[in-house]
Amino acid sequence: MKNGKKLGLTTKIFIGLLSGMVVGIIMNLFVPSSYVRDTVLVDGIFQVVGSGFIRLMKMLVVPLVFCSLVCGASAIGDTKAIGKVGGRTIVFYLATTALAVSVAISVASLIRPGIGLKLDDIEAGNVAVADKTSVADTLLNIIPENPFQSMANGIMLQVIVFALIVGILLAKMGERAELISNFMNQCNDLMMEMTGFVMSFAPIGVFFLIAKTFSNLGFDAFLPLLKYMGSVVLALFVQCFVMYMILLVLFTGLNPIKFIKKFFPVMVFAFSTSTSNATIPLNIETLEEKMGVSRRLSSFTIPLGATINMDGTSIMQGVAVVFAAQAYGIHLGMTGYLTVIATATLASVGTAGIPSVGLVTLSMVFTSVGLPVEAIGLIMGIDRILDMLRTAVNVTGDAVCTTIVAHQNGSMDRDTFNDVAKATE
């Protein structure tokens, strides 16, 4: 039909997920084991196409994270114009992100979503557990001896540190490094386009990855996936409606119910678009007109938050790590979880505010603790459903932080916030 509405990527991925599940279950229950089923289809076509898509995602990780972080750090370097406000905002954003990952790991550890899945039966021989290292060595390993070697080997914590240093110094040099800054921005735009290009193949990749998984597991994979979704949703709820509101009350004394009521339309918009960047104008307008926050301040903190404050994405990464570790029977321990918190927090500094990029950086978090990247394929199909919820949490965190900083800086009109009529406009 000419006037028919084109299917969005989310719908296509969801169709790929359901189709893959149906095909996989049919293969598992009704197609007898044979050369065609096992070698040609499951370990042949399904494996090659699915793993090929995973390789495309892994291809993006280093250049995407490096370019995004350099550009993000360059923007952070401009905070001198705002003085203490900028530094306070950045610290708060990073602290809430670390808190979000901790909440996610705690919730997932209680629900234990990966128990019973036993993915090691499928990917046996591909699972590599990182060697245990001391805390001192872990800290020293963050500093790259050769940043280009770190990029080539995918040692992402070292890549992150190098990118942050480059970005901060580019901001400090100003016009002297304008050519390089423009080049990095163009590279970042290129990587965003490439991410969109790769993600356009996601429905196909998801279909074959899920079909392969369910061909081997059948119905056994349903309960762990539901538990994974439940863990992410619960962690997002705790972060958004408990942790953020506690921080709001502690630092400002404002009524959290009023805040949620006034900000809820922005949350709905973020949910529907799945992109923090698209929500920036509405977020700033709502903070000014309904919360009484100075536009001068929010015009800095909200775009900054869309760059470095990805609490919802970090929650997904924390739950996914626990899910994959349990599914593969890998014990991470306290050092492993601290590494996840540090990696996810630093990675959030450069995560772009567009759909699906969190899945790309998730492979970096997996690599940092020795988890197989292939596990991402199992959660990819349902991730776009959760992505909408994550975006709503991301923009709420930006608004809560901005409100707190505005209150502490004297850049907020409390009468506007307490005006009940503003909540219904």
Question: What does this molecule look like?
Answer:
It is a single chain. With 425 residues, the protein is mostly helical. Helix content is 76%, strand content 0%. It has 17 helices and no strands. Helix 2 crosses helix 15, helix 3 crosses helix 14 and helix 10 packs antiparallel against helix 11.
Q: Can you tell me the residue ranges where pLDDT is under 50 for at least 5 consecutive residues?
A: 121-133
Average predicted confidence as pLDDT: 78
CA distance, first residue to last residue: 39 Å
Which assembly state applies to the chains in this document? single chain
Instruction: State the total count of DSSP E strands.
Output: 0
Radius of gyration: 22 Å
Described by the principal axes of the CA atoms, the overall outline is globular
- The helix-and-strand class reads mainly alpha
- Biggest sheet descriptor: none
- Output the number of helix runs: 17
SSE topology string: HHHHHHHHHHHHHHHHH
Report helical residue fraction.
Answer: over 70%
What fraction of the residues are assigned to beta strands by DSSP?
under 5%
